């Protein structure tokens, strides 16, 4: 009888130990352990133990939901993980927190991450991850905070980012992302902070619909226009748009206030409250207000014709970036080809045969 009681006790202990989380979740944890050189982690803890409950494994939290234990938090940042994120990462239906930052995790972010529909916090910062942001990221509709900063991610931000309407913080800084920001970003109505610094983003960015936004980092990109007229500018905690060489018009709630308080911008970037003010500033002939030459078409994407209106001949044409760097020079011609130039604002300097000098703005589409 005594032996039978001992046997029953051992069986119950075994059932308790392995029934605490679904087998699929335990196997998924072991897949992560094996894919990231678990034995050499800084703190491997009790991972893989057949006698220690999963709830006691280092970096793991478990919660009882409707009578069943599930993994709800995986926090293994700064823990010496080395390898890749396995597709099994999607096998945690009740996971709320996934933090793997500051490890060495090469390869792509697996698309299976989109299966974590209860995820609220996703930190994969500084992991050397590469490839695109998977479209499946848009399935994480419970997400509140995401940071993929400091990796080697490429491609554009997927339009599915607009599905994350509960998101309050988005950090994609220090990657190699490019292209324009999808218009769906205007759906992030609860967003409070956006960091897109040190990428290769370009084009126009309209954040005017994001009334809760009070922090923005866009430095070291190539945006051509930024709209932050969200009626919340005076509550911003941080704002940086420096080193966007083609950025001229920045639309804000109050231009005077922005000039005083938002100093982290290039000298060529100007604050405006209306499109008309921007258009007026970009008037082509704003240096001499003369009618000595006609420059057309302007804006253009290729050939520019320069026609003398006063009978003087063109001796020399120089073209400069908006920062004043000369990039090309022509002699005795009346048309120039800028089809290979990047989109943006340029200055044309014309010297005529009477040694008169004129300067004009030209816009490359």
Question: Secondary structure elements and their pairing?
Answer:
Layout lengths: L1 H18 L3 H13 L24 E6 L2 E8 L6 E2 L13 E3 L4 E2 L15 E3 L6 E2 L13 E3 L4 E4 L13 E3 L4 E4 L13 E3 L4 E7 L8 E3 L4 E6 L10 E3 L8 E3 L3 H7 L8 E3 L2 H7 L11 E4 L6 E6 L5 E8 L4 E6 L3 E3 L6 E9 L4 E8 L1
Verbal overview:
The protein is built from four helices and 25 strands. With about 375 residues, the chain is α/β, with parallel strands linked by helices. It folds into two domains: about 20-280, Ribonuclease Inhibitor (Leucine-rich repeat, LRR (right-handed beta-alpha superhelix), Alpha-Beta Horseshoe); about 295-365, Immunoglobulin-like (Sandwich). The strands form five sheets. A nine-stranded mixed sheet has the order 1-2-4-6-8-10-12-14-16, with no helix packed on it.
For the residues shown, what is the average pLDDT?
Answer: 90
Total DSSP E strands:
25
* Fourth-tier CATH superfamily name of the largest domain: Ribonuclease Inhibitor
Structural class based on helices, strands and sheet pairing: alpha/beta
- Tell me the β content: 25-35%
Spatial separation of the terminal alpha carbons: 89 Å
Residues in helices, as a percent range: 10-25%
Radius of gyration: 29 Å
Spatial order of strands in the largest sheet:
1-2-4-6-8-10-12-14-16
Global geometry: elongated
How many domain modules? Answer: 2
